[in-house]
Specification:
Blueprint: E1 20-21, E2 30-32, E3 56-59, E4 66-70, E5 75-79, E6 92-94, E7 118-124, E8 127-132, E9 137-141, E10 154-156, E11 181-187, E12 190-195, E13 200-204, E14 217-219, E15 243-249, E16 252-257, E17 262-265, E18 279-281, E19 306-312, E20 315-320, E21 325-329, E22 341-343, H1 354-357, E23 368-374, E24 377-382, E25 387-392
Parallel strand pairs: 1-22
Antiparallel strand pairs: 2-25, 3-4, 4-5, 5-6, 7-8, 8-9, 9-10, 11-12, 12-13, 13-14, 15-16, 16-17, 17-18, 19-20, 20-21, 21-22, 23-24, 24-25
Length: 393
């Protein structure tokens, strides 16, 4: 029996439907990050213009500022205004003494202004939230940082800013602990965290006000102290394997469950523990989990490690990371619906990095990990190409 949402639903898209570009076929308007043949095979030295495997970015408003999780350099980079030219240098750095140094927690102990493998990043009220993955915490700034190394105001997942043990050093998890949180989202007062290593999503009904504040409820596990992959069994409509990013599409919660190679979509926004989702995309049912549905090449209905998800106008978009593409759906959704839109590949059955395993171009992708949207601009963390793309609708 087909599962549907309360929104206007249409039958599955015919297999012969014409492919539609999600983003401009002319490619990105702005490319940040130096691009040389060596930059794709060797780590890049940190500077105001280089990026190394960035996994998250957000444009606060259409005019800026822009904040980027420069994951491989263990820092956040900030542009005071929306960048206007390729390779424009950043104005601010958080996490390192200056633009030319790197290392987890600036080669010291964790602080309120250091990071270790920062990933998801989002506007959070009047401030900013960052998933500081390898410190097993989320950092929150109540106001947007406007200077180098501005310290965060609140830490979640740890008791204070100087701790960084998995689940606070305990075997079991709890409502105030984290293990590799990779995704953050703030929506209508609620904070959502993809607590990836604990195979769950934590939700705070209001923006936390103190360090280590426990979450109010959990998705993906039956209780706050459980952390089993897929709840200890096979995939279901409740379970998760590698939750990574979140979005809201037509007032419905969407999660990129990378480990199960699918998007999970709830009817509305769940408010109780372990609520089952209403449908999935990327798989034909709730029990399947193989990448590309068991095939080597992708199809319009398959996904391979989707690490990002975002909404742009009529489009629900997934960063289909291991297929080096963005895929999109519009209008009504149904279980396993075929995607109508594509960006980064010339056709749905290609998964080559940069279309043909060649050099990066303005309209190619290589392992895109993150995608967010501001107005009519998609901000893509094109990790395999060590760059950020600002790409028009």
């Amino acid at each position: 029996m087909e599962t549907t949402l309360k929104i206007n639903l249409l039958p599955n898209t015919p297999k012969n439907e014409t492919l539609t570009n999600i983003l401009s076929p002319h490619g990105a308007n702005i490319v940040l990050g130096e691009q040389t043949p060596e930059s794709l095979v060797m780590p890049l030295e940190p500077s105001p213009t280089t990026l190394f495997g960035p996994r998250g970015a957000c444009l606060v408003s259409e005019n800026g500022p822009l904040w980027v999780s420069d994951t491989g350099h263990h820092r956040l980079l900030g542009w005071k205004h929306r960048p206007e030219r390729d390779g424009q240098p950043a104005d601010w750095v958080i996490g390192q003494p200056d633009f030319y140094q790197e290392g987890q927690n600036a080669k010291g102990i964790p602080q309120a202004n250091t990071v270790s493998v920062p990933t998801g990043i989002c506007v959070c009220g009047e401030g900013l939230a960052v998933a500081d993955a390898w410190n097993h915490r989320v950092l929150i700034w109540r106001k947007l940082p406007q200077n180098n190394n501005t310290p965060a105001d609140i830490v979640l997942g740890q008791a204070d800013f100087h701790q960084n043990q998995v689940n606070r050093g305990q075997i079991n998890t709890a409502a105030d602990r984290m293990h590799w949180p990779y995704g953050v989202m703030y929506h209508q007062g609620r904070l959502f965290v993809a607590d990836t290593g604990n195979r769950r999503v934590l939700v705070w009904n209001e923006l936390p006000t103190c360090n280590g504040q426990p979450a109010d409820y959990v998705l993906g596990q039956v209780e706050m102290n459980r952390r089993d992959e897929n709840g200890g069994g096979s995939p279901t409509a409740n379970s998760m394997r590698w939750p990574h990013a979140l979005a809201i599409w037509q007032d419905n919660l969407v999660l990129a469950d990378a480990g199960n190679n699918r998007l999970m979509i709830w009817q509305g926004i769940p408010s109780d523990n372990n609520t089952a989702c209403s449908l999935v995309l990327g798989q034909v049912n709730f029990e399947e989990a193989q990448l590309n549905q068991g095939g080597y090449f992708p199809t319009p209905s398959s996904l391979s490690m989707p690490y990002g998800v975002a909404v742009m106008g009529k489009w629900l978009m997934a960063a289909d990371t291991a297929n080096s593409r963005l895929v999109g759906w519009t209008d009504g959704l149904s279980l396993g619906k075929v995607a109508q839109g594509l960006t980064g590949q010339s056709h749905f059955r290609s998964k080559s990095e940069n279309r043909s395993y060649g050099g990066a171009t303005r309209d190619s992708l290589s392992w895109p990990y993150g995608v967010t949207v501001c107005g009519e601009t998609a901000i893509i963390a094109d990790s395999g190409n060590n760059r950020i793309l600002l790409w028009g609708f």
